[in-house]
Design goal:
This protein is an alpha+beta fold. Among the domains are: 1-81 and 290-341, no CATH class; 357-503, FomD barrel-like fold (Beta Barrel). 25% of the residues lie in helices and 29% in strands. The protein contains 12 helices and 25 strands.
Length: 504
């Protein structure tokens, strides 16, 4: 059994799945407490699960064994739930080199494990890009220049399918949900309630507890409702972690003081001190991307606890405005569980609409995201079909078709919500068809600003002479062998490709 803290738009669904599987949910939010007849403790969690910044999935980090225990609940939501190990989970201390200085911080090339299969993480696949992080200037005491060797701690990780970098700091911090420790003296209270802040400020004296020399306690908002036993447990855990990190970072010897006044992080005085692997890795991490089918599975789990409209998570993943709209709709009425996803209503309220620019986000099973550019929406149908067009520039040939790409050609793409494929037809200036390329993918989702899916490698083409060709089965097989594409998902891709061959 694992203790999990869950936050974000998937919290209710994941809480239901966790509780059904015998796990404990702690530090539950008020809506979760209202929706479940369960006891929610305030003990420090073993694993933390949070929605990604773009709402497309979740990141989970914590004790490796606890993470292993809940990973299947995250990836088991549907066939199109894909997971990748996180090489930079929060709390990790690692070395790197500054490669670029920006207005507010520096880009750091991190010496982190790439998390590929075989590292014991148990997640499928891995981000293809090298690990980079962002170090705000305010998070480090020394001046930072390009080429500097640095030792940093990950404050916040980033999903591999986004263009965000993990946020770093040149100062240690340990603990988190109830109480954290950071270098300094005294006590800091990170809550807005003045009365609660005064009570927490004196809690260390009341509990007769002292942080290690050179560290100060930082009480977090959940500490307001925690009992003294939970606060003591949280502080004890933070103290143990702080002592381990001091030793790992060299604060007890190499380049640091032995009294806790230095934490061994920041700009290093010698490049020879750089380590090729993390100095401390208190947490394991995994990122999970949910496709449309997975969001439907999460809808089913959420529906066991509270009223849930069709496509609840699909709509919430689209935008913050759409998320608020869902909350309002569900608060005003009890939607029928067997109703169809109201694509027309959602598109009319939030987009896309005819004339809008729509980005095509082409995901890869190894965690990468490739943006195919923006297209103009030329039609929106109530059945969930959105048609977009792009005018092509000249030069080169169309991928797989072997047809020259000429200036003025038009690419027309038909994106239908929930379909496991989409076609792009290329036409010349005179309207003549120059070929059709059908991409097999996870079920298409058409959000207000972007169409999203994960490419499943195998494709079907129809050449100008009418010849039908299926390609890239070998790439799909390689993706399965590499652990990037689960076999059930690959089998679905092959089945869709076969159906398309016959249809064309």
């Amino acid at each position: 059994m694992a203790r999990a803290r869950v936050r974000g738009i998937y919290a209710t669904a994941l809480t239901a799945r966790l509780l059904d599987d015998g796990h404990e949910v702690v530090d539950a939010s008020p809506p979760i407490r209202r929706r479940f007849e369960a006891e929610f403790g305030t003990e420090p969690p073993d694993v933390r699960i949070e929605t990604s910044a773009d709402r497309q999935g979740v990141g989970a980090s914590g004790d490796p064994d606890a993470l292993d225990a809940v990973r299947g609940l995250l990836t088991g939501a549907g066939r199109d739930a894909l997971a990748w190990p996180d090489p930079t989970p929060p709390g990790t201390v690692l070395d790197g080199e500054v490669t670029e200085t920006l207005g507010g911080g520096a880009v750091v090339d991190l010496r982190a494990d790439d998390g590929r299969p075989g590292d014991g993480g148990g997640a499928r696949g891995a981000p293809a890009a090298a690990a980079e992080g962002y170090l705000p200037y305010g998070g480090v005491d020394a001046r930072v220049e390009t080429g500097d060797p640095v030792r940093v701690q990950v404050r916040e990780s980033a999903a591999p399918w986004t263009d965000r970098r993990p946020e770093l700091a040149g100062r240690l911090r340990v603990g988190g949900d109830l109480v954290a420790l950071e270098p300094g003296s005294g006590t800091r209270v990170d809550v807005r309630d003045d009365e609660a802040a005064r009570e927490l400020a004196g809690m260390l004296d009341l509990l007769d507890l002292d942080p290690p020399a050179g560290w100060r306690a930082v009480w977090r908002p959940p500490a307001v409702d925690a009992d003294t036993e939970a606060l003591t447990t949280g502080l004890d855990a933070a103290v143990e972690a702080a002592e381990g990190l001091r030793a790992a970072t060299g604060a007890d010897g190499e380049g640091g003081a032995d009294d806790g006044t230095e934490d061994g992080l920041g700009v290093l005085d010698e490049r020879g001190r750089l380590r090729d692997a993390p100095l401390a890795a208190p947490n394991a991490g995994v990122w999970v991307w949910f496709g449309r089918e997975s969001r439907g599975g999460l809808d089913d789990a959420r529906r066991t606890a509270t009223a849930t409209m069709p496509g609840h998570h699909r709509v919430k993943a689209g935008s913050s405005d759409a998320s608020a709209g869902v909350d309002l709709a569900e608060a005003l009425c009890a939607p029928a569980a067997d109703a169809e996803f109201p694509f027309a209503v959602v598109a009319d309220a939030f987009g896309p609409r005819e004339g809008d620019a729509l980005r095509i986000d082409h995901g890869k099973p190894d965690g990468r995201l490739i943006t195919l550019g923006e297209a103009t929406v030329t039609g929106v149908d109530a059945d969930g079909t959105v048609t977009v067009e792009r005018e092509m520039s000249g030069g080169g040939t169309y991928d797989g078709l072997g047809v020259d790409r000429e200036a003025g050609d038009v690419a027309e793409t038909s994106l239908k919500e929930g379909r496991w494929w989409y076609p792009t037809t290329y036409r010349g200036r005179d309207g003549a068809v120059r070929g059709t390329y059908v991409n097999v993918c996870t079920p298409v989702e058409v959000f207000p600003d972007a169409a999203r899916y994960v490419d499943l490698h195998v494709d079907v083409m129809k050449h100008p002479d009418g010849t039908v060709e299926r390609v890239d089965d070998d790439e799909l097989a390689e993706s399965v062998a590499a652990g990037h594409t689960p076999e059930p998902l690959a089998e679905k891709a092959r089945s869709v490709a076969s159906a398309l061959e016959n249809a064309l």
